[in-house]
């Protein structure tokens, strides 16, 4: 549920983020205070005060559960805004050298930016690299960026959510391939021009996981050396497919998370969603009119072979400005690896990144009435096991996402060629990266 506002806040990352990142790569970057695993238990015993920036709905309850177990520690939970709002405030604090929290929630796509700006503590010094087996491969890869710069909070393997009542009404079958998905969209829209199989008004947080799933690997990152190819084979595969939805008008031009979107999901105007596995909890809580109608299925693939990508997800990280990094790391260890904390997170609709919960019969056996008694987590867990590997984000991805509407977005507005929009986006990103001192190829 921490993703509900992520796509509504698109802004511009300050240039200081990139320039600060480059400066941090030099020899003068201040090293983090050295620590060791035994420091964590000692820090918990000594106690102290921590500040935790998060927007997850479970944040307050998790902090309360932690302080009940460790009364010597006080945790101040601060909602500094979601996504770009928080990242702007966080980067400003990093640049100023003060004002950062001890622990911050950072989405996987943005984490690399703060690693490159030398803002985060490498948790490996506290032995937290040993926790790797507890997490899914895709979420661990997201935090293991030359060091362990956070612990995964949740995951978002993409799945297909669909309105079974609408599918039955119009004789649609659940598509296993993207060709079948396009055919279903054509059938539905031809039968009722006011209905759409799905919506998309142009969202980088939606497009990039689909590019990932299609085999696109448009970004390569090696320190300050960046490669951008938004016309590689997989990226073109997605764009060519999505053109078949966009250009004939088969996509509802409704922005995700807008009031119109919620209405369309409620009245059946939009009959399916492609989203992260955190979406079922949001749907159940926000679209009560759909109770009993919705189901979950694997996301379609190009050849019917199960493959997906991560759509969303966050880590929690310790900031180097923390006056007590060992205590912050101990809190972080409890927050994202203890059964007590994870139980609170799941109660608030989160989808776990931890393999123990994903393998739990209690978790996989959940059969909500909202989804017609379907054991939806079985589908979501299977998706988590089929996440394609090797995808990277840019070290200025927050900025990149902010200019998506000005480039690729034009193709959506004009129902034009997404490949042309991607080329314009690439040109903009290359120009920006070079002005910030990156070597961009």
From TrEMBL:
Gene3D superfamilies assigned: Periplasmic binding protein-like II
Q: Which UniProt keywords apply?
A: Signal
UniProt key word Hydrolase: no
For this protein, the record's PANTHER family field holds: ARABINOSE-BINDING PROTEIN-RELATED, BLR3389 PROTEIN
Q: Species name for this entry?
A: Glycomyces tritici
Which residues constitute the signal peptide according to the record?
Answer: 1-23
Entry's InterPro entries? Bact_solute-bd_prot1, SBP, TAT_signal
The protein's name: Sugar ABC transporter substrate-binding protein
* Pfam families on file: SBP_bac_1
């Amino acid at each position: 549920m921490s993703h509900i506002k992520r796509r509504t806040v698109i802004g511009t990352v300050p240039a200081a983020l990139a320039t600060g990142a480059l400066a941090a790569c030099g020899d003068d970057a201040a090293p983090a205070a050295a620590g060791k695993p035994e420091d964590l238990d000692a820090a918990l015993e000594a106690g102290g005060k921590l500040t935790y920036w998060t927007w997850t709905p479970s944040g307050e309850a998790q902090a309360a559960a932690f302080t009940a177990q460790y009364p010597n520690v006080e945790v101040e939970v601060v909602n500094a805004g979601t996504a770009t709002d928080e990242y702007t405030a966080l980067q400003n604090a990093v640049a100023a050298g003060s004002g950062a929290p001890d622990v911050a929630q950072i989405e996987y796509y943005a984490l690399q930016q703060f690693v490159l700006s030398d803002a985060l503590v490498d948790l490996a010094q506290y032995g937290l690299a040993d926790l790797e087996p507890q997490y899914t491969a895709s979420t661990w890869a997201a935090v293991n960026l030359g060091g362990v710069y956070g612990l995964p909070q949740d995951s978002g393997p993409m799945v297909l959510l669909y309105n079974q009542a609408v599918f039955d009404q119009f004789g649609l079958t659940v598509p296993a391939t993207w060709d079948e998905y396009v055919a279903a969209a054509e059938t539905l829209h031809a039968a009722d021009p006011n209905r759409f199989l799905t919506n998309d008004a142009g969202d980088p947080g939606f497009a990039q996981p689909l590019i990932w799933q299609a085999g696109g690997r448009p970004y390569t990152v090696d320190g300050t050396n960046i490669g951008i190819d938004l016309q590689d084979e997989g990226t073109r595969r997605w764009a060519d497919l999505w053109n078949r939805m966009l250009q004939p008008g088969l996509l509802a031009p409704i922005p995700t998370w807008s009031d119109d979107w919620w209405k369309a999901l409620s009245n059946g105007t939009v009959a399916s969603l492609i989203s992260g596995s955190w979406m079922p909890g949001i749907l159940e809580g926000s679209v009560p009119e759909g109770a009993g109608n919705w189901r979950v299925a694997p996301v379609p693939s190009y050849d019917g072979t199960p493959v997906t990508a991560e759509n969303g997800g966050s880590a929690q990280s310790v900031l180097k400005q923390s006056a007590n990094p060992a205590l912050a790391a101990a809190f972080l260890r409890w927050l994202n690896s203890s059964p007590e904390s994870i139980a609170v997170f799941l109660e608030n609709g989160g989808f776990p990144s931890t393999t123990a919960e994903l393998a739990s019969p209690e978790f996989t056996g959940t059969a909500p009435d909202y989804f017609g008694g379907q054991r939806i987590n079985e589908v979501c867990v299977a998706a988590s096991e089929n996440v394609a590997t090797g995808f990277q984000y840019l070290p200025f991805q927050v900025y990149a996402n902010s200019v998506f509407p000005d480039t690729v977005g034009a193709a959506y507005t004009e129902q034009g060629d997404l490949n042309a929009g991607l080329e314009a986006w690439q040109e903009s990103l290359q120009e920006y990266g070079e002005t910030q001192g990156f070597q961009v190829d």
